[in-house]
Design a protein that fits this description.
This is Pro-resilin-like 20. One of its GO terms (molecular function) is structural constituent of cuticle. The protein has 2 helices and 5 strands; from the N terminus they run H-E-E-E-E-E-H. It is an alpha+beta fold. The protein has a domain at about 45-115. A hairpin with a 5-residue loop joins strand 3 and strand 4.
Length: about 120
């Protein structure tokens, strides 16, 4: 049997290792704390648009919200040449109500045009 200061140090290190291994991190989860600032009803208004002739990109979005009432529209230039516009509203719990309209007539290239089509190069800044 080992005796003396080496045994005592070895025994002490063993006890410390067991105590350190028994310490597990503890986590607790709770409900979010209430903010001290009062927040009012949701209200906002935004509008943005892109119209780039070189890439033929034409799209945009606008929306307004007052509490539970939201109204807006968005549009996009489709590959077939038409402009698609979606006008929508949400009135409380009524759900999303949309009206979709198209402006223009769909154009499809001849098969020879499709083979020779080279998409425009886009530059990202």
């Amino acid at each position: 049997m080992i005796q003396g200061p080496c045994f005592q140090i070895l025994l002490l290190l063993g006890v410390v290792a067991v105590a350190a291994a028994d310490r597990r991190p503890s986590f607790s989860y709770s409900a979010p704390r209430a903010s001290s600032e009062e927040s009012g009803p949701a209200q906002y208004n935004f509008n943005w648009a892109v119209n780039d002739d070189s890439s033929e990109n034409d799209f945009g979005h606008q929306e307004t919200r007052d509490n539970d009432n939201t109204k807006g529209s968005y549009s996009v230039q489709l590959p077939d040449g038409r402009l698609q516009t979606v006008t929508y509203y949400v009135d409380g719990d009524s759900g999303y109500i949309a009206d979709v309209k198209y402006v223009g007539e769909a154009r499809y290239p001849d098969s020879d045009e499709v083979r020779s089509y080279t998409p425009p190069r886009r530059q990202y800044n």
